[in-house]
């Protein structure tokens, strides 16, 4: 077993942790270790561990050479081409940040102009814990090869050790610590490790509670937006950031957006059970018992439309499309118009998503289904998905849409429409 991947915490006598907090943090680390151990046991070892000391710089240069070979094989400008010449004003620190953005987000833009996105990158690079967590997530999705996965394990181990050190020395978890845990959870979701994902989300809940205990009442806005945007993932059964306990905690502390979203899933489930699986897409009326959930869903979509936030708008519009695809006669909408609105809302996102975020976001699938063939909106959704699939395949992933397909399997009516469109 790789000893570097096990984390240990000695909180005995820590000056800023109560006895209860110490027990909770030991439990967090123990659960994380056992989740990783179970994952390793379930996997078939095909070869001996390689050298785990490969550096991120080496990984970057390997990827750069691969991209240059692709560039030579395919004349013209590739959307994933690495910049080969830096402006004369480029400094080593600027180049390092560009390399980091490319390694983690496959982002080849020379600079980031949007102030919201710049603040996001500033947060990521502000502290080692979130920096290492981001590298772990990026390397996890970099490629299925053993070397990339070992590098991901190495950075994840460093991030967890740094996180433990910060927890042991601070009264209030910082924004960077919250970001690190959410990033680590996302990486485990991409690795399809439910047990480790739940461990990280439970840790996030305890951090939120500790912040509230010390009077820090809100999460940074970008994190709330990620939780809201992930609501459709939750409905489909493969959440990345949406956890019911996180949502309950945010709702109990007065978050209006999350409070509007929280009861929707229960109402959707009730309607599914009331209509029956065989009635999906054909139900024309509901029972008396289902009238209440139906009306609450209709009210919820109207309430969500009122929030002036493109992430919440995208969630609201995707929800309308989702409900219409399930029950077109119970939720009548001009689906092509709503699909175009969804594209407008997603175009307003201030932070550029990485390919593995896009390929696990059902908003693109719902927009593709809803929009008219040949329309600018349909082309936009198709290009986004095609571009991300191309990038991931170049990294060695044979089926970049596997997680999405697994989620859509819970909704065969939607799954079949998407597969038919994608294959054409």
TrEMBL record:
Keyword check for Nucleus: yes
Pfam family, one: Fungal_trans_2
Biased composition range(s): Polar residues: 68-92
The keyword Nucleus is assigned to this record: yes
Native source species: Bionectria ochroleuca
Region described as Disordered: spans on this chain: 39-92
Keyword terms of this UniProt record: Nucleus
Protein name: Uncharacterized protein
Record InterPro entries: Fun_TF
């Amino acid at each position: 077993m790789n000893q570097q991947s096990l984390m240990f915490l000695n909180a005995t006598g820590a000056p800023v942790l109560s006895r209860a907090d110490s027990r909770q943090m030991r439990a967090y680390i123990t659960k994380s270790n056992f989740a990783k151990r179970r994952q390793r046991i379930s996997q078939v070892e095909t070869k001996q561990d390689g050298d785990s000391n490969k550096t991120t710089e080496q990984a970057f240069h390997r990827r750069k050479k691969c991209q240059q070979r692709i560039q030579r094989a395919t004349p013209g400008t590739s959307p994933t081409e690495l910049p080969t010449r830096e402006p004369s004003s480029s400094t080593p620190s600027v180049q390092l940040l560009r390399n980091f953005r490319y390694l983690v987000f496959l982002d080849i833009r020379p600079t980031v102009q949007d102030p919201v996105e710049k603040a996001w990158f500033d947060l990521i690079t502000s502290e080692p814990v979130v920096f290492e967590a981001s590298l772990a997530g990026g390397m996890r999705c970099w490629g299925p090869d053993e070397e990339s996965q070992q590098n991901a394990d190495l950075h994840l181990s460093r991030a967890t050790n740094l996180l433990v050190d910060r927890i042991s020395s601070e009264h209030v978890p910082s924004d960077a610590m919250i970001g690190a845990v959410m990033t680590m959870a996302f990486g485990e979701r991409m690795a399809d490790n439910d047990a480790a994902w739940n461990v990280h989300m439970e840790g996030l809940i305890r951090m939120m509670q500790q912040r509230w205990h010390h009077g820090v009442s809100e999460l940074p806005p970008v994190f709330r937006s990620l939780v809201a945007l992930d609501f459709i993932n939750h409905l489909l059964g493969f959440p990345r950031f949406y956890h019911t306990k996180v949502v309950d905690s945010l709702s109990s502390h007065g978050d209006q957006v999350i409070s509007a979203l929280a009861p929707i899933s229960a109402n959707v489930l009730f309607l599914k059970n009331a209509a029956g699986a065989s009635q999906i897409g054909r139900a024309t009326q509901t029972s008396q018992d289902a009238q209440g959930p139906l009306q609450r869903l209709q009210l919820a979509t109207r309430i969500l439309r009122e929030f002036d936030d493109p992430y919440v708008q995208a969630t609201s519009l995707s929800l309308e499309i989702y409900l219409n695809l399930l029950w077109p006669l119970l939720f009548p909408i001009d689906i092509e118009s709503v699909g175009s609105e969804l594209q407008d809302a997603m175009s307003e996102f201030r932070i550029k998503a990485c390919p593995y975020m896009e390929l696990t976001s059902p908003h693109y699938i719902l927009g593709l289904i809803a929009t008219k063939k040949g329309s600018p909106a349909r082309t936009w959704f198709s290009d986004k998905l095609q571009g991300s699939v191309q990038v991931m395949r170049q990294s060695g992933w044979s089926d970049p849409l596997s997680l999405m397909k697994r989620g859509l399997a819970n909704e065969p009516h939607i799954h079949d429409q998407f597969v038919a469109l994608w294959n054409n």
